[in-house]
C-alpha cells in the first residue's frame, strides 16, 4: 500500500463480488479503504492476454478517476492501477458503507445516473467498448465440432450433446446477432457497461455506481438494456450479446480441462439454460 502512502493497521479479506479479490484495509489513522486485486488473465473484456488486459484496465480506471467529479462515481484513489507481479494489478478505493443489490434483482432506479453519465464528454482514456462478440470464434468452432468427442472433463460430453441438439436454434441466434450488429446506431457515449443492482451501492447520501472496469464508449443501449429502455433493436442486440458472450465462456470452460466442482456445476446450470432458450 506504499504507492498510496498508506500504512495498514488491519486487513480483512471480503468474499464479495465476482472475479476479482477484495480486502478491507484500515490504515493507521483509522480510515478504511477497499482494495481490489484483478487477475489480468481473467479480464477478457479489458483485453485478450495479460498485457492487453493491463492496458485496458488501466484505461478504464483512469476513466473512472476522470469521472470522479460526478457524485455517483466511486472512483479509485491515488494511482488508479498498480501492477502486482506478472498477471495481477491493485486498485484502492475509499471504503463506503452501504447496501447493494444482487445481479438478478429487478432493475434499479439508475436511469437518471446513466442519463448524466451519457452526457459527459468522454475522457481521453475512455476505452472503446466494441460491440463485436469476443467469443464468436469459440462458438463457431464448437458448432462445427459437435460431431467429435469433447474430452475436457465431466461436463465436456454433456455440453457437446446439448449443443448438438440445439445447434439450429443457436445458428439462428447468431444470424440475428449479425443482423442487429449491422443495424446498430453510431452515436457513442460513455457507458458503465454493467449498471445492474449488484453494482449500485445505496448509502445514506445517495446511490453510487461501482465496478468501473467495464466503462467504455458505446451506444447508450449498452447500459439502457439493463433497464428495458432505449431503441428496441439496440436493446435486443445487447440482451442477445450478453447471452452469447456468457455462452461462449461456458463452452470454452467445458472444452478445456476441468473437474466437477461447485463452480462447474453452477456453470453447467447456466450453460444448460442458455442453450435451451
Explain what the structure shows.
Residues 12-235 form the Aminoglycoside phosphotransferase domain. This is Aminoglycoside phosphotransferase domain-containing protein. Pfam families: APH. InterPro entries: Aminoglycoside_PTrfase (IPR002575), Kinase-like_dom_sf (IPR011009). It comes from Actinophytocola xinjiangensis. With 277 residues, this protein is of the alpha+beta class. The protein has two domains: 1-95, 2-Layer Sandwich (Phosphorylase Kinase, domain 1), CATH 3.30.200.20; 102-277, Aminoglycoside 3'-phosphotransferase, Chain: A, domain 2, CATH 3.90.1200. The chain is built from eight helices and ten strands. The chain has helices at 50-66, 111-118, 136-144, 156-165, 167-182, 221-224, 232-255, 262-276; strands at 8-14, 21-27, 32-39, 82-84, 88-94, 99-100, 189-191, 200-203, 206-209, 216-218. The strands form three sheets. A five-stranded antiparallel beta sheet has the order 1-2-3-5-4, with no helix packed on it. A hairpin with a 6-residue loop joins strand 1 and strand 2. Helix 3 (136-144) crosses helix 7 and helix 5 (167-182) packs across helix 7 (232-255).
Amino acid at each position: 500500500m506504499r504507492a498510496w502512502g498508506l500504512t495498514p493497521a488491519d486487513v480483512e479479506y471480503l468474499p464479495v463480488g465476482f472475479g476479482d479479490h477484495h480486502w478491507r484495509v484500515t490504515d493507521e489513522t483509522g480510515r478504511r479503504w477497499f482494495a481490489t486485486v484483478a487477475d489480468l488473465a481473467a479480464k477478457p473484456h479489458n483485453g485478450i492476454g495479460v498485457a492487453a488486459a493491463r492496458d485496458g484496465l488501466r484505461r478504464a480506471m483512469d476513466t473512472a478517476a476522470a469521472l470522479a467529479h460526478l457524485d455517483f462515481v466511486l472512483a479509485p484513489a491515488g494511482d488508479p492501477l498498480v501492477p502486482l507481479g506478472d498477471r495481477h494489478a491493485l486498485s484502492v478505493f475509499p471504503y463506503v458503507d452501504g447496501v447493494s443489490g444482487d445481479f438478478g434483482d429487478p432493475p434499479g432506479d439508475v436511469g437518471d445516473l446513466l442519463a448524466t453519465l451519457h452526457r459527459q464528454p468522454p475522457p481521453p482514456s475512455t476505452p472503446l467498448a466494441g460491440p463485436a462478440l469476443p467469443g464468436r470464434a469459440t462458438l463457431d468452432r464448437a458448432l462445427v465440432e459437435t460431431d467429435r468427442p469433447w474430452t475436457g472433463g465431466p461436463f465436456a460430453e454433456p455440453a457437446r450433446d446439448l449443443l448438438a441438439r440445439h445447434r439450429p436454434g443457436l445458428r439462428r441466434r447468431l444470424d440475428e446477432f449479425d443482423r442487429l450488429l449491422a443495424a446498430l446506431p453510431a452515436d457513442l457515449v460513455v457507458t458503465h457497461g454493467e449498471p445492474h443492482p449488484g453494482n449500485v451501492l445505496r448509502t445514506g447520501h445517495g446511490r453510487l455506481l461501482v465496478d468501473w472496469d467495464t466503462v467504455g464508449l458505446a451506444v447508450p443501449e449498452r447500459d439502457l438494456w439493463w433497464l428495458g429502455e432505449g431503441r428496441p433493436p439496440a436493446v435486443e442486440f445487447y440482451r442477445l450479446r450478453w447471452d452469447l458472450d456468457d455462452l461462449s465462456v461456458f463452452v470454452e470452460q467445458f472444452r478445456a480441462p476441468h473437474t466437477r466442482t461447485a463452480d462447474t456445476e453452477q456453470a453447467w446450470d447456466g450453460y444448460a439454460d442458455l442453450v435451451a432458450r
